[in-house]
Amino acid sequence: MRDPERRFRFVVNLQGDLPTIAPLDVQRCLGGLVNDAVDISTIAAPITDAADVANPNIVKAIAPLSDEREVAFARDFQRRPAADLGPRFWHHIGIYAFRRDALERFVKLEPSEREIERRLEQMRALDNGMSIAVVRVDSVPLGVDTPADLEAARQKLKASRF
Q1: 3-class SS of residue 76
Q2: What is the pTM for the complete model shown?
Q3: Going by C-beta distance under 8 Å and a sequence separation of 6 or more, which residues neighbour residue 16?
Q4: pLDDT at 25
């Protein structure tokens, strides 16, 4: 992290494979840090398709979000959640806002067993007692994982004049 003067209290980790993420969703992620008890904030959108619930490539944020509750503490993150964790599942979106001290702590931690097993870095934080707020957003941005996804993102960005 480049900030030797420690001017910034928060750091947003936005992955490059989400070029169509809405700027407001980035702000909402950062807004999850308004609660001083939160170390890390992330975002999730409702899953409405049963096939997406079953898809192990979609990480589910397990948090008590609802239409009335926009922010909740994460209980877990899973690729194949048990049905009793529903009825509603939340599509985790790979953006994180960290308090500076939390990020400095996180990067010094060894990967946890659940992180290694699930291939989910956020498990390292949960397994070491760090709190993660999940903020509800309305939709999932287009992720770029293939050349076809890249072309779709180019077309979407061109059409929207981002």
Answers
A1: strand
A2: 0.90
A3: none
A4: 96
